[in-house]
Amino acid sequence: MKIIVDAMGGDFSPNPQVEGSVKAAEELGIEIVLVGDSELIQKKLDEIGYKGTDITVRSASEVITNDDEPARAIRRKKDSSIVVAANMLKNGEGDGLVSTGATGGVLAAGLLIVGRIDGVLRPALAPVLPTDKGPAVLLDSGANADCKAANLAQFGIMGSVYANNVLDKQNARVAIVNIGAEEHKGNEMTREAYTLLKKAPINFTGNIEGREIMDGAADVIVCDGFVGNVILKLTEGLASTLLRNIKGMFMKNILTKLSALAMKGSFKEFKKKMDYTEYGGALLLGLKHPVVKGHGSSNAKAVYSAIKQAVKFVSSGVVDKIKEDLKKMEENNDGIEG
Amino acid sequence: MKIIVDAMGGDFSPNPQVEGSVKAAEELGIEIVLVGDSELIQKKLDEIGYKGTDITVRSASEVITNDDEPARAIRRKKDSSIVVAANMLKNGEGDGLVSTGATGGVLAAGLLIVGRIDGVLRPALAPVLPTDKGPAVLLDSGANADCKAANLAQFGIMGSVYANNVLDKQNARVAIVNIGAEEHKGNEMTREAYTLLKKAPINFTGNIEGREIMDGAADVIVCDGFVGNVILKLTEGLASTLLRNIKGMFMKNILTKLSALAMKGSFKEFKKKMDYTEYGGALLLGLKHPVVKGHGSSNAKAVYSAIKQAVKFVSSGVVDKIKEDLKKMEENNDGIEG
Fold first, then answer.
1. Of A277, A296, A330, B263, which is least packed with CB atoms within 10 Å of its CB?
2. What number is the ipTM of this complex?
3. Residue A170, Cα to own-chain centre: how many angstroms?
C-alpha cells in the first residue's frame, strides 16, 4: 500500500509530516510519497538518518494557505503540494492521501480533483470526537454549512460504514443531533432526515440532544456542517477552558500543588483519552479515494495516527461499502433527491 | 412591584417555588402572587411559618406538562397555572412572571397570551451562560428552531439591552455564532445577519466561533434556536462529563482522596461560578411584559434568583429600551422584513 502525504501547509511543516511518515513506513510496512518542498523534506529525512527505500519525495513548489480562496487556489496553484498530491491520488499513484494543510484547500482538492463517489450528493468532513464511551464520528463538521435532509441521510450511512470498519464499532449507533428526542422535534431538515434514516440499512437510534453527545450516546453523530462545526469547536474550547481552570486550582498553595503530583497519572490518562492526536484526523467521507485531513498543528504522532487511519480505511474497503449501502438506501427510497 | 410566580410544573413543585418566593418577598421588598394548587401552596407557607402580607395565593387547578402539545394546551387548559399567571400579567395584575414549568407551555403562554412587543418578529429564549469572563446571554436557545437573518438581528439588539441593563455589562459585546471569523463565512442567514447587525445601535463585534464561547469572547451570543439549544445542552453535558471524570480520578486511592480534600474549596468556588442557580432563569425576550423561565429542577435558591432577575428586568425598563432600539434599527434599515 502507498500513502501520499502532503508535507506542507501544517504549522510546523514539513518536520512532523516527515517524522510521522518515517515512523509509519517502518511500523506499518507501507510505502509513502512525501509531497512538497523537496529540499526541506530531504533535509529532515537526512537529519532523522532515514536510509530506507519505502519513502520517496515528490517536489511541489507552492502551498495553499488559509488566506487563499480554496476553489480558486486549486485552479491557480497547480504546483501546490495539495493539488499535486490530489492528482497523484486520482491517477492511482497512491491509495490514500493525508494532509495537514488548510482545510478549505483540502476540501476543494478532494471535491474538485479526487471527486465524489457516484451517488454521493455531498462529501462530509468527519472528525473523531473523544467521548466518555470511546471515539465517535461527527459529520458533517464543516464541509457543508447548508444541508438538506438527503445529505444528512447519506452522512448517516457513510458515518456508519466508517465507524464499523475503521473505529471498530459493532453495529454503530447512528443519531441525528436535535433539540429534542421525539421524532417530530427540530426543524424541517431534521424531521425529513429522521424519516429517511429510519429506512436506511444502519442502526439508526433516533435523535440525540447536545447533552448526551459527550456521554457517548451515539457512535455516529449526524448534523449539518454548521452545527457540527459549532459542536467540534465548542467541545475543544470548553475542554480547554475547564482544564485551564483546574490547573489554576492546583497552583493555589503548597497543598494543592502536592495534590497535583498525586493526580498526575490520572490526568495524563484522561488527557490521552481526550487527545485528538490518538485518533489521527478527519476523514473526508464520500470521495472516490480516502483523504484524511489532519489538524494544522499536528505533531509527528498525530501525522502517524492519520496515516494509520488512512491505511485502515483503504484496507477495510470503506469506499466500496459506502457505494453498496448508498445503493441499498436508494432502492429503499426509490431514489433520494438532493 | 408585584411578581407573579407559577408555583406548578417544576420537578419539586410547589415547594421550592414557595420557599424562593418567601425569601424574595422578604429580601427584595416586593409583593408576590403564587399561582397553582392553593392547598399545597398554603401548606408549604404554613410549614415555613410565613405570616406576612406580601405573598398572596391565586388558585389554578391544572398544570401544563412536557407531554402536552403547547399551543393546544394553552387553549384547552384554561385553568392551568401558567395560563392563569400569563393572563394576570397581561391584565396588569403583576409586573413580571416567573415559571419553572414546561418550556413549551411557558413559550406558548408568552407568545399567545402576553404577546410580543410591536415590531418584534420572534421572541427569543435567552438563558445566561456562565463563561470564564462572567455571565453571557445566549439567544435564541430554543424558541425558534428555524430563523431568518432579521430574527437574528433583533436577537442581537434585545440581548444587548438585556446584558447592559440586567447583567450589568458596559457596552455589551454582541457576536454571531459562526464557523469562521470573517464576514463572508457561514451560511446565508449569518451573512445577512452580519450586515444587519453592523448597522445596529449596539457594540457588534462580528462572528464568534464555538471555541471562543466559553472563554467569554462575547457578552451576547446570537444564533438560531437550533444552534443555541445545541450549545446550551452540549455545554451542560460536557461540563458534567468532565466533572464526573475528575471526581473519578479523585476517588482512586488514599493520596488522591487526600488531594480531593485539599482541592475542595477551589472546586466549590468553581462550581459556584458555573452554577445556573446563581443567575436565575432564561428571559423570554421580546414580550410586552417580562417572563422568566426557570429550570424545571430549580431549587429555592434558583427560584429566588429568577424572581430577582425579573425584578431587575422590570425596574431597569428593558421592555421600553428594546422598543426604542428596535425602532432605531428599523430607521437605519428602512424597515427589516422578516
1. A330
2. 0.89
3. 20
Contact A280, A294 (CB under 8 A): yes
User: Cα–Cα–Cα angle for B181, B187, B192, nearest 5°?
Assistant: 85
CA separation for the pair B240, B245 (Å, rounded): 9
d(Cα B136, Cα B270) in Å, to the nearest integer? 17
In the sheet that holds B220-222, the strands lie side by side as B128-131, B134-139, B220-222, B173-177, B203-208
Q: How many CA atoms lie within 13 A of B225 on its CB side?
A: 20
Determine the Cα–Cα distance for residues B142 and B232; give it in Å rounded to an integer: 9
DSSP A236: H
Q: What's the distance, CA A218 to chain centroid?
A: 17
Cell numbers at A281, concatenated: 484526523
Retrieve residue B178's grid coordinates: 459562526
Q: Is the pLDDT of residue B122 over 60?
A: yes
CA distance A302 to B126: 40
Separation of alpha carbons A217 and A173, rounded Å: 8
Distance CA B189, CA B147 (A): 8
CB-count exposure of residue A301 (10 Å: 0-12, 13-18, 19+): middle
Radius of gyration, CA atoms only, chain B: 21
pLDDT in tens, A8-55: 999 999 999 999 999 999 999 999 999 999 999 999 999 999 999 999
Instruction: Indicate which of A266, A268, A273, A275 best probes the interface with B, i.e. most B CBs within 10 Å of its own CB.
Output: A266
- The mean pLDDT of B128-141, rounded to a whole number, is 92
CA distance A191 to chain B (A): 12
- pTM, rounded to two decimals: 0.91
- B145 touches A: beta carbon within 8 Å: yes
List beta partners, residue A129: A136
Cβ contact (<8 Å) for B262 and A263?
Answer: no
Supply B35's cell numbers. Answer: 399561582
CA A193 → CA A140, A338, B107, B282, distances in Å? 14, 12, 26, 30
Q: Where are the beta strands (DSSP E) in B211-297?
A: 220-222, 282-285, 291-293
Contact A216/A134 with Cβ under 8 angstroms?
yes
pLDDT of residue B182: 87
β-bridge mates for residue B220, sequence order: B137, B174
Q: In this predicted model, what pLDDT tens digit does every residue of B35-50 receive, in sequence order?
A: 999 999 999 999 999 9
Alpha-carbon torsion angle B184, B185, B186, B188, nearest 10? 10
CB contact under 8 A, A236 and B210: yes
Backbone angles phi, psi at A260, to 5 degrees: -55, -40
pLDDT at B133 over 90: no
Sign of CA dihedral B201, B204, B210, B213: negative
Which pLDDT belongs to residue A159?
97
Q: What's the mean pLDDT when you consider all of chain A?
A: 92
Question: Which amino acid, residue B186?
Answer: G
Rounded CA separation B229/A230 (Å): 12
Q: Which of residues 235-264 of B touch A (CB under 8 A)?
A: 235-239, 241-242, 244-246, 249-250, 252, 255-256, 258-260, 262-263
